[in-house]
Here is the input.
Amino acid sequence: MSKNLFEKVWEKHKVSELSDGSTQLFIGTHLIHEVTSPQAFGMLEERGLKVKYPHRTFATVDHIVPTNETKEPYSDPLAQKMIEALRKNTQYQGITFFDTSSGKQGIVHVVGPEQGITQPGMTIACGDSHTSTHGAFGAIAFGIGTSQVRDVLATQTMKMNLLKVRRININGSLGAGVTAKDVILHILKELGVNGGTGYAYEYGGKVIDNFSMEERMTICNMSIEGGARCGYVNPDAKTFAYLKDRPYAPKGVQWDTALVEWKSLVSAEDAHYDDVINFEGADIKPTITWGINPGQGIPVDEPIPTIKSLPVELQSSAREALEYMGFSEGQSLKGTPVDVVFIGSCTNGRLSDLKEAAREIRGRKVSPHVTALCVPGSQIVAGEAEKLGLDRIFTEAGFQWRQAGCSMCLAMNPDKLVGRQLCASTSNRNFKGRQGSPTGRTILMSPLMAVAAAVTGKICDARELFKDEG
Amino acid sequence: MKDKTMALEKITRRTGRAIPVPGDDIDTDRIIPARFMKCVTFDGLGEYLFYDIRKNDDGSEKEHNFNQERFHGATILISGNNFGCGSSREHAPQAIAKAGFTAVIAEGFAEIFLGNSTQLGLPCVILSHEDRLLLSVSVEEDPIQEITIDLIKEEVRYKDGSLPLLLHASNRQALIEGRWDPLQDLIENAAEVDKVASKLSYVNTAG
Ligand code: SF4
Here is the structure.
């Protein structure tokens, strides 16, 4: 049998086998941000080490940046300290930093692709679990801890165990109003939050082939929520078209050479997989979560499962989830009032997400009791959206239009839920306390569904609300 | 430089009192909530371990093993399945270690958490669901008893007997050989690293 992309990329980047049988893997591209890097720089300093390949590390600031103030020092002195540490460290080590004044700052997983830093066949690492996003380009991209950030800075390599590869096919086509976010929430619902342990996920099938690069990023982004260490899509003409002429993409003759190489890395027709799973696009409905992990999902028009109907090993966390969320088994969530709507994050904060949301919000109003936030994933996304007048569409409808950052995805900046507020969110995690209030509640969904929740003030089926439009 | 490798402790066993933290899928947001990660060093994180599990909104203490005198001084955590899922933040195992814990027993671990912990010399070992329940019940009843995690014999011993533990072979080897922090090994292969780099066109042409 022939090799899949993961195996080919792994082989090209394998440096050596370590004494315990694991692999020393070369990391071609390293992305860093302010939360998980300062301690790693500290560890380097302690040992008197320098960054080995500073030109292969790129930095931005995203988690702690406020989205409604630009003047420094920020009102949060801890946030100020973190951004300053990153400035100092990157400057001292000679690392490119997309700072807030660069016009290119944003969520690290939005910035990498946007700049053309993310390319097929690369190994990529970042001290952030959603590094799997970059797999949309046919890169093998791992989220890592801070000690590994240290390892990559010092050696451009890290220790890794080889993964198995599971091919996930989404066959056929999707119904109207069903989006990439629904596809990944559906996969998580079916395979569970640790079904991917030990695996890399390769996504394919007609639905994925037809997806835009941005939709593929939404899918790969949440691979980690399923327990997979990374997720990827084989590169194709869409991948190459997206990358052409981006600032860090190869140019001229180098582009032609790269193209040949990228094509050679695609999984062969008869490639070997450790597991293959098929889903039918037509079976997927708009999907939302009802619990406290991203695998606790339901189609919007179906009730929360009864505890009895769940496999035994999922029952205790389901009970805990119902108690925390204040929902009951068998309950339908349609009609449940929401307090906050958040559109943004590395899952759904790119231009296509904002365009899709804006198309439906135009001419409508946010329900009066709902606080609605739209936070672009990067300064470039914000700029392009503003050029298209999307900011005005959002603000006229009653949304707050903010500056780029992670914002209410994990609330390390001032954007937080208050008390038990219920948030319809396009982000990727619905853990207890994730959005900044220890008792706050999150329902994950697509941008389309979030807009529907914003205008009706309730969880509803976007397909019914927007059915008159194409 | 060799000395630094030698200096790593060979971790063959952990002994101490234990504390059960019930629940499956305890994610790293719960181990250390993001609002406590606004820091540029890991020092002081131990104080915020499981903060929202331990405390109410108003700062008062919840009913939880962590707030019970009888579990004070425990150095081994016991939890359910998929422990450490979610965010890759190393702040989670760091907070556990800084709070004085030297090992974690669970029914399963999320991979990034497991890797992060091993690299810090914090062994994470797996028991079957039934065995984990046995152990938790025994510890709940008698928190004073000593638990031993034996990485050589691959078992957990407690007052009622011993339970077979599971540990990824490479993690086990790294711990017992005192090679759990791989940095020195990685540095020593610098020549090989440069060789791989020289064959990767994107590393050489960019920049
Ligand atoms: S948007 Fe959310 S998930 Fe993405 S990098 Fe930021 S905090 Fe992490």
